[in-house]
Amino acid sequence: MNTTKRQTMLSMSVVAVGATVLGMVLAGGLGLTPSGTAAKGAPAALVSAPLAPPAGYPDFATLAERVNPAVVSVYTEDVIKPQDMRRFHQDMDPFEFFFGPGTPHPDMRRQQKRTGAGSGFFISTDGLIVTNNHVVESAEKIKVRLADNTELSAKVAGRDPATDVALIRVDGKGPFTPLSLGDSDTLRVGEWVMAVGNPLAMEHTVTVGVVSAKGRALGLSEATRSFENFIQTDAAINLGNSGGPLVNLRGEVVGMNTAINAAGQNLGFAVPVNTIKAVVPQLKDKGKVVRGFLGVTITNVDQKAQESFKLSSRDGALVESVSKGGPADKANIKAGDVIVAVGRVPVKETRALIDRVSAGSPGQKVDLEVVRDGGHQTIQVVLGERPTAEGEEDTSAAKEDTPSSKLGIEVEDLSVRSRRQLEIPKEVDGVVITDVTELSPADEAGLRSGDVIMRVNSREISSQQDFHEAIAGVRSGSMVRLYVYRAQSDQKSFVFVRMP
Q1: Low-confidence stretches of the chain (pLDDT beneath 50)
Q2: Phi and psi of 337, rounded to 5°?
Q3: Do 352 and 371 contact (CB within 8 A), yes or no?
Q4: CATH number of the domain where residue 450 is located
Q5: Which domain holds residue 338?
């Protein structure tokens, strides 16, 4: 859905201890190394009863004794071929925070064995373990070490890159000790939590802290971007904690430790357990997760959008673009629609729409309540399957006394030459911005040269004359809604600018 660039000041590092990174650290002795709803049909063999709520200060020692037997260390091996060495070396860049830039890779002329480490925890007595997808996604061999140092082989039972959840099964006789899965929706900010795992290959390390925040989106990857809903915690999490449980004081899993902010201290992030419970049944039965798909790019309704579209509230998901030929396009969903309910269930923000649609099955018919041009209407959409990896030339346009000059932009008609230079598709029509005045309203709104303005408020734009007439009709102080195409990212979105 809406794609954003990774912020350069935020170095988000996935917590997996990868390949040569782990080996380098261990050899160097530096101590460094690299809101969902609970789904029906979660594994039945979750037999551990939760602990009684503590009456006084938390008894972390008893909690650790209870949780540790269900936590495992996960060790992986795979082989990097010579042609993949450069890509692998580039993939190590996020770990430069720990090592500094330019860490040389071993001999790139021959294939190399790569080892990694992470964590996991049993969710059933018959050997099913939950861990992170990024811990095991490229593994050719998986070894699991239990709390009593027993080592067992394991195989991947299912993976879901979108939520970074994987299910593996050990080859060994049970019964194994599972953890109870709690309810992350009821988790409160400030609540005590404990993280257990295998950081820096230090097995069964226990750290404690509180829930710092909920609903964090980090933009870790294109695969996870639409489904990120992390729990933030200050319980210390380090590289190798990936896949380990985050538990509450009752010993129930409330999250799975997944990522850290390498630029900060005690900024750890965990996948909510309700997300895990929602995907585990499909991972167990199918080995993957099949999701419903609308084919739209959406964003939350903010104050500017509410004012511009004259909406009664900020509830709903604003459609910024519609994929041509997708389910939404076939159902006549349009950019500028605000989806406020799915099957009569209200949609407060984009997260709710994503969860509702993704929980549906391809081919399923769903009713969307949409606000369009101030009116409500119900549109039925047949869900698809979510993909796995959306006149005369006016030469006075830029004069100081024109409305467009007050906004701080100059525009011109799209020509064959400008389409070729900017790689603008034929189906995109409008006027192209040729200059943006610094510190102008347009500059502050993020408009840039090369952007194509396709629509001003509800008026379609096909020429400079269309654009200037549309802008001239906007009252001073009013919010102007521009529908913009950006060739660099191949994205369409709304930009809101207040007329001076």
Answers
A1: 1-42, 44-47, 87-106, 390-400
A2: -70, 145
A3: no
A4: 2.30.42.10
A5: 292-385
Cα(119)–Cα(96) distance, integer angstroms: 22
Q: What is the pLDDT of residue 351?
A: 84
User: Token pair for residue 121?
Assistant: 């925890």
Contact (CB, 8 A) for 39 and 208? no
Task: Identify the residue whose tokens are 């299910």.
Answer: 167
- What token pair was written down for 37? 């709803």
- Read off the pLDDT of residues 7-40 as tens digits, 9 standing for 90 and up: 433 334 444 434 333 443 333 333 322 333 334 4
Asked if 244 and 324 sit in the same domain, the reply is: no
Domain assignment present for residue 356? The answer is yes
Q: What type of residue is 426?
A: K
Nearest Cα to 449, choosing from 464, 462, 431?
431
Predicted TM-score (pTM) of this structure = 0.64
Cβ-based neighbour number of residue 109 at 10 Å = 7
Nearest Cα neighbor of 341 from 314, 376, 379, 368 is 368
Who's near 346: CB < 8 A, 6+ residues apart? 315, 340, 352
In the three-class reduction of DSSP (H, G, I as helix; E, B as strand; rest coil), residue 405 is classed as helix
Q: Which residues are catalytic?
A: 134, 164, 242
Quick one: 377 and 463 in the same domain? no
Q: What is the DSSP string of 304-332?
A: HHHHHHT-SSS-SEEEEEE-TTSHHHHTT
Of 233, 287, 219, the C-alpha closest to 264 is 233
How many Cβ atoms sit within 10 Å of the Cβ of residue 202?
14
Q: Are residues 328 and 210 in the same domain?
A: no
